[in-house]
Every structure is written in C-alpha cells, then in structure tokens.
Amino acid sequence: MNKFNKFIEEKLLPVASKLGANKPLISIRDGITLAMPLIIIGSLFLIINSFPITAWTAWLTKTGISEILTKGTNGSFGIMGLVASFGIANSLAKQHGVDGASAGVISLASFVIITPNIFTADKSPIEGMPITYMGSRGLFIAIILGIISAEIFQWFIKHNIQIRLPETVPPAVSKSFSALIPGATIITLWLLVYAIATYSGLGNLHDLLLKILGKPLGILGDTLGGTLIVIFLNSAFWFIGIHGGNVVNSILNPIWLMNTDENRIVFQADSTAKLPHIVTQPFMDNFVWMGGGGATLGLVIVIALIATRKKASKITKTLAPLTLTPGIFNINEPTMFGLPIVLNISLLIPFILVPMINAVVTYSAMAIGIVHMTVGISIPWTMPPILSGFLATGGHISGSIIQMICILLDVAVYYPFFRIVEKQNQIEENI
Fold this sequence. Notes:
mainly alpha; 2 domains; 20 helices; globular
C-alpha cells in the first residue's frame, strides 16, 4: 500500500496536476460552460415544443407557437459555437493576466470572419450566416480560433505592442485602444486564412476541421469502446484527487455536444425518426455519471442503508446525510473528499467499474431499441436521476426505468466494497 501511494504521489500526481492546470484545457472548459445556460434554455423550449402528447403538439403547430419555440431553440442552443469563441479567448487571456473581454470580442469577430456567408442564387452575399456553423458544428473552429487569438493578443500586450493612453483616460477607453493593434493583427490574420481557404479550393474551414479532428475524436466520443476509455481516465484522475471532468471531459465535450445537437436537429424535424447518436452529453451526464464522477449515487445509497443499522460506525452515520442529499443532485465532493474516495484503495475497483457498467447497460439498451435515445435536450447536471432520464429521452418512461436498473446495479457493486471500508471504520473506533 505504501509503495502504491508513493508511486502515485511521485509519478502520477505531478503529471495529473500539470494536465489539470493546463491553460488551454481550462479555457475550453470555461468557454463551453459559458454557453451552457443558453443550451439549457434552448432545451426547455425543445421540451415544451416536443412534449409527447399528440393533442399538445398539434395545437402548437396549428397556432404557430411551435415555429416561435423552434426560433427560441435555434437562437439559444444554436449559437453555442459563437459564444464559445468569445468564452475560450476570454478565459485564456485572463489566465495570462490581460484583458479577457477585448480578447473575447476579437475572437468572436474572427469567428464571424472565418464563417462563410450565405449566398443567393446569383452569388451575391446577404446579411447573415448559416446558423449551422454558429452552433455545435462551429465548436472546433471556436476552440482553435479562440486559443490562437488569445495567445497572440496576450503576446502583443505583454510585449507592450499597443496604444497606451494617459492614466487620466477612463480604463474602458484605454483598454479599447490597447486592443487596436493586436485586434487588427488577429482579424487580418483570420481574414487571410479565410481568403486562402476560399480561393485555394480548401473550402469551408468548419467542415474541414470537422473531418480532420472529428473522426479521431469521434472514436473516443461516439463509440462504446471509446466511451469506456474516457470513463476509465475520468475515474483515474478523480482517484488521485484531480477533477477528471476538467481534464478528460474538456477534450470530449465538443464531440458530445455536437452529437447532442445533431440528435436535436433530427428530433425537431421528425420526432419519430431514428436518432444518429447514442453517446451524447445527456447520455454521459444523466446515465453514466449518476451521482457524479464514479457514479457515486449507488455508493451514497449504500452508506445511507448501512447507517440505519445499530452497529454502524459513527463515521458512516455522520457521512450518510452529508453525502446522500448532495449525491441525489449529482454533487459528490463530500463523498470524494469526506469518505474519502480519493486515494482509497478499497473503493478503487467499483469507482472505475460502476460508471462503465452504466455505460454498457444503457448503450446496449438504446442500441437494441428498448430504451429511447436522448433527443438533444440538455438537462442541468444537477437534475436528479429518474426525472432526468425521462426528460433526456423526450418524455419516454424507458429513460427512467434504465436509470433505476443502473442504480440498483451500482448499489449491488458498491455494497461489498463499502462493507470493507465499514469494517475498517469499526476497527478504528474500537481501538
């Protein structure tokens, strides 16, 4: 045990800490998180517009309200790429200690420049952009463009290549002038990139990046085997005290969100059509990681059950209410660091195995058609299971049923391992 802990502390922990503090990864996480409120709001419109009651949907269509709700979904859920381009540059610039807002605005303008215009039949541009590229299909461009733009911006500012005004000038005005030289350089750069891509035959950079990056990342983010690898890495990082979601999920979130949005588009067009993706953001959040990283809802239920026994340890009786209530809402930091799970060898196997079981069971059930796939509705990650499964599948009870089955399996797997922890607690209390 001591050798294992020493190996983790000396070899794995430094590497994991560097990954967890990686500025580009943090900026990707922050940028996509900035768009999450819009994604959830758009999902609410989608739920109202597609609630599985024929009379309701027919009335919405007849009155024209359905078209308005669709506009609300497209105008919120459908601009996540545009928002992420601002958020990623803003976050990365702030991490470098320079003006994040200016970097974000420049990145957003660059995103608009790199995105092709809509053309009429006679090839004259009209005022507008395809909403397709403003949404999930624009995430790869948003990530790369946001990171590069922020790095260039901070280099100019830190090398004092900027217009400096007297200190008597209001800060807001001073910052806007400071951004002129780096902003002009960055926007010109992306304008040249757009021109080269357009006139060299490379075409649309959004689609080009999707082909280059989408296929290899899709192996991890859109297949069962890749999903199991991601789950393993997520749990492994959490086990050594590094937020697994911040490291692993930051890389895969764009794929999961694109899959979510593609399901939404198909479902909006025809609620009876076969959906293209099983692995989506709601699939991971609401079916795999129930209770948080390691799917610890099953564990906190076990703790609560054992705490009801008269001979239960004082530690377990104290932990039960502190872990169960937040665990129901998928908040598991009290469990991670209070039990703890971090660096607790006794719980390592179930912590890795349980979310894998959830993924295999749910994926298989959706693949053979006994459970409805997620319809593109993004559920807040704090939504309790059973209810989240119903909503994520567009109002299908099968989503709730598969969650209940997985929770029972999770409890069964966690139980014998926590019994070992409980015996250790009792021994310590009797010494």
